[in-house]
């Protein structure tokens, strides 16, 4: 036996987390993936699983302690498989020698030896396939997303990288690939289920001939060992070998929601992220039933409670005052079929979320839009001169790359546009990074991937990233992480047409630039009208954070950069 120290695993970006629950006592048997304790960040709660089967010894932290990645949190006593195997071989050899020196009864124990009587090693059942649990990889978000399609069936032979299921978040769809090749034994999800990073998807049977099978981890749901016949000589195994440590089986049972009765805010069992969500929605947590361990209230519980109230289905609770539409009358329903043939087409999730976000932003942000034209005659001549080099590099340079580069420089020169208003209404958040989002029109709806640190990248790098992200957007392969963190948004309709439009600010950003189709126009140079390629620009901004002078300086600087791209090098 040896003592194994368990440390805090990768936290997915969080620097520190709080220990909120310790569930084991000294002497408890634990199986692989059993929960040792529960941690909570400002965004999510997470279980720390046991890395091995054994006996729990003690915790090295207390409830309420703050820990970070790599900190020691618990001790587990685990069996050293090699030692047990050697001891078993020695015992069997001793018995064999004894059988030659003294008469032994013809009748010996005929019972098959369980795989748990000796070291539990995959090699003992080399002829049988190993089982592997396929889980959801990191999706760049703590939120759970919906399963919209299952691409395999039980019994299918799947290769590494093949798509198992397709998930859809509020902003994009994403494939969950197979991390190993194997045969599908069991599918653990259904269409409509919601999954997050690390959740189980399917159980695979991995062939022992597969080179990857030598490094296959144990399935997430530990099962009690079952007796398997082993073809060996009929030798009675001593009792001390045949009595292994009991292994606790992981039991999964539905948790009933417990409705709190007469609790105060301090008595409610909920984390800080849940409490913040409840405050934002105007919900009293004491009225929310909890579905987590020991009645803990989760984010999904708060969302479900609000949905029930909004649909008038909440039982036994008084309606609460939730933020609404400020008394705006609804648009009356009309039966359009009375005028002719119609068809009802269901909105995609992205289209529904886009509509909700646009309405929210329009109602909450006092918009002002400023217009100007930029002379991009020289810029366009330079861009066309790059055609030969573009073909050599395999990178297509579009005007969008120059627009994003110029926006990055303008944000640095005008930091007022690189801010967001804090939720308390008392501060603004000044960002010291420059990430620019670009609106992409896709068959599923409008998405906004974000190009990061544009101030540190050249036109070639930005062009390559535009092509990559736009392709992912059209194929529905964008991850949530690739659509977060934007400081400012570019919405370009140049390839489609139009003389101008008023874009809606993508809150909590405070500005967005709308670009329409460039046109040749006569421009007076002081002595004559000369043809110049003019690009219409429309800058919408949040008047709570930006005043007219700030917007004028930003637009003037941006027009200067686009009219003479040499300023981008300064």
Entry keywords:
alpha+beta; OB fold (Dihydrolipoamide Acetyltransferase, E2P); 4 domains; about 20% helix; seven-stranded mixed β-sheet; about 575 residues; four-stranded antiparallel β-sheet; Dihydrolipoamide Transferase
In short:
The chain has 570 residues and is of the alpha+beta class. Helix content is 22%, strand content 24%. A hairpin with a 2-residue loop joins strand 21 and strand 22.
How confident overall, as mean pLDDT? 78
Instruction: Give me the CATH fold name of the largest domain.
Output: Chloramphenicol Acetyltransferase
Basic shape: globular
Specify Rg, calculated over alpha carbons.
32 Å
Q: Output the number of helix runs.
A: 9
Number of strands: 27
Distance N to C terminus = 66 Å
Q: What is the count of structural domains?
A: 4
Parts with pLDDT < 50 across at least 5 consecutive residues: 82-127, 211-261, 313-326
Kindly describe this structure.
The protein is α+β, with helices and mostly antiparallel strands and 570 residues long. The chain has 4 domains: 2-78, RNA polymerase II/Efflux pump adaptor protein, barrel-sandwich hybrid domain (OB fold (Dihydrolipoamide Acetyltransferase, E2P), Beta Barrel), CATH 2.40.50.100; 81-209, OB fold (Dihydrolipoamide Acetyltransferase, E2P); 272-310, Irregular (Dihydrolipoamide Transferase); 350-569, Chloramphenicol Acetyltransferase, CATH 3.30.559.10. 22% of the residues lie in helices and 24% in strands. It is built from 9 helices and 27 strands. Strands 17, 20, 23, 24, 25, 26 and 27 form a 7-stranded mixed β-sheet that branches. Strand 26 (519-524) and strand 27 form a beta hairpin. Helix 7 (399-413) crosses helix 8 and helix 7 crosses helix 9 (548-563). Mean pLDDT is 78; it is low at 82-127, 211-261 and 313-326.
